Amino acid sequence: MSAYISTDLNMVKALDPERHRIELAREEYLSRGKVIEVLEGPTMKPPPARHEPPPRPKVVIDTTPKPPTAAAVRQRTKRQQERAERAAERAKERYDLVEHTRKLAESMTYAQAMEATGKSRKVLTAIALEGGFSFQTAAQIGYQNLRARQADDAQDAKDCERIKAFLEVGLSRTQAMNQMGVRFARFNRLLVKGNIDYPKRRAGPHPAFFAKQQ
């Protein structure tokens, strides 16, 4: 950092007494046999030279595909042959399964085939689609819907007694049907069959209407 030197003459003259005092002190110090030692300033040493390692030779990798060896060809051929054999075995097992299921479908329904083979209906359906065949239709399907429902007099008598009990405790028709777990048609039939006068609950009074004040 360079020292600041003023160009103002008055400021230079103002420092004369201080310079005079310093000069007298230096002469007095030298008169006593003392020596003023001038110290050398710091020196800047250059850093040592850096020795870089020699560059490594570039390794060139040959990416040209090499023909397979005879052993590799034999190993690959063996694996391909094993895969082909396993695929042929799976195809034969699948064919046998389809043919076996086809024979069952000639005389069985889905339910009977499921019990005989232990397979689900989804699996049997997929096999039937693959083989192009269908199972026998169950004879009882829809039979329950074709014949009229037979009324059970004993059960109807018990239900009529329950309805009378609900009437005595004051339940509505809807509450009584919910308690019995029956629909309106059966509930109405029981009322007619048991000659039960079950009054319908009327709607309650309408809320009062108040005119809006202006």
Summarize the structure.
The protein is mostly helical and 214 residues long. The chain has helices at 9-14, 16-31, 70-105, 110-117, 121-131, 143-146, 153-169, 173-180, 184-193.
Hey, roughly how much beta strand do the residues contain?
Answer: under 5%
How many angstroms does the end-to-end distance come to? 94 Å
Could you give a short account of the major beta sheet? Answer: none
Give the helix level as a range of percent: 40-55%
Instruction: Show unreliable segments.
Output: none
Give the SSE string: HHHHHHHHH
Shape label = elongated
Structural class: mainly alpha
Q: Any idea what the radius of gyration is?
A: 58 Å
Task: Specify the number of helices.
Answer: 9
How would you state the average pLDDT, rounded?
81
Count the strands? 0
How is the topology of this model organized?
Blueprint: H1 9-14, H2 16-31, H3 70-105, H4 110-117, H5 121-131, H6 143-146, H7 153-169, H8 173-180, H9 184-193
